[in-house]
Amino acid sequence: MKRVITYGTFDMLHYGHINLLRRAKQMGDYLIVVLSSDEFNWESKQKKTYFSYEKRKQLLEAIRYVDLVIPENSWDQKVSDVKEYHIDTMVMGDDWAGKFDFIEDETKAEVVYLPRTPEISTSQIKKDLNAKKLATSVDTSTIDVSGK
Ligand code: C2G
């Protein structure tokens, strides 16, 4: 059984995440997602997620490609994760290209960087939603609904 691992925050789950998870699963038989905890996100990534860890975990566990979700509490747990779970392949989006090559030096696993889905990101979704909110937050009291 080929075992694959990937890491991320996966906040406001979108099709870019799904594209990554689908391709990661295609590289093996069992996919472990190491999901950034709320504390790790805030302390180490300065990310305040929209959904809590539990909600993000619930969403990921509903995805057919995902076999196991475990917490990511530190940048430094990857080597021990790969060894503990007997991982064959670690997969990340190519925004991380080169950053985890040390995994190949310190474990038997290969590291694969896959092209990101270019036009979508959680931060872009938030920006678009804010822009729409501003655009549609007109003062409705000025609208004449009398039909005259
Ligand atoms: N991703 C992607 N395409 C997008 C957005 C994200 O392929 N449009 C990929 C990222 O490259 C990453 C995964 O989806 O491999 C999860 O993305 P994030 O939730 O943004 O994770 P990140 O903040 O990069 O955390 O220790 C590693 C970190 O936990 C990775």
Automatic annotation (TrEMBL):
Sequence intervals crossing the membrane: none
Pfam families the record matches: CTP_transf_like (PF01467)
The keyword Lipoprotein is assigned to this record: no
Residues in Cytidyltransferase-like domain copies: 5-127
Gene Ontology biological-process entries: teichoic acid biosynthetic process
Keywords from the named record: Nucleotidyltransferase, Transferase
Molecular function in Gene Ontology: glycerol-3-phosphate cytidylyltransferase activity; metal ion binding
GO cellular component: cytoplasm
Cited NCBIfam families: cyt_tran_rel, g3p_cytidyltrns
Protein name (Swiss-Prot/TrEMBL): Glycerol-3-phosphate cytidylyltransferase
Organism taxonomic ancestry: Bacteria, Bacillati, Bacillota, Bacilli, Lactobacillales
